[in-house]
């Protein structure tokens, strides 16, 4: 008597669908096998994810080209405001006080894909969605004009504020405890326009001196800084500026001739 064989029909993991038709209540992103971004192998019960998706049930995005080896792949709820140069505390919210030292997450992200969608955060000197492009030097546009050249040009000034926490960490105003800073030192960490991070040597506080840990632009500069000084093109393969005719320098900020 011949024995009967057993046909196995495996199911694959279900995850929130990246896209799909709504149900009768109008709800979307319902649970779907392989999140709707892969094909289930019925013999193994494993999802074979389409390009750009990975993980159990194809439930998370992969980063383009694995960030080309020049960055890290971060989830949406890990991305920060103030990661790149130019973002600084503007006085509008207490949560922005930490900018310039590792950036900050302004608020919790409760989006359905907050812990599923991902993007590259590039290392210093690299940019682009896959961190494959080198950054070029930036500088002032040498042909920029000011309304009144009879007065000295303003350079940007940022004011740093150190806020005392007191012995229990509960104080919020700098004037609460001036002596908390006596004999203490601190260091500043900042990010350059090339997205490179630097930390100063320790700065010793003198008796009676109070600064503030917020940063704000107290004096705006008369000039803005542009990639290749706005007088050249960036070669994203080499990170070098190709200056237009009549301009030279690392960031094309020097004239070679007056016409």
UniProtKB/TrEMBL annotation:
Keyword check for Disulfide bond: yes
Keyword annotations: Disulfide bond, Signal
Keyword RNA-binding: no
Source organism, top-level taxon: Eukaryota
InterPro entries: Dev_Signal_Modulators, EGF, EGF_extracell
Pfam families xref list: EGF_2
Domain EGF-like: 47-58, 241-252
Gene3D superfamilies in UniProt: Laminin
Name of this protein: EGF-like domain-containing protein
Species name: Triparma retinervis
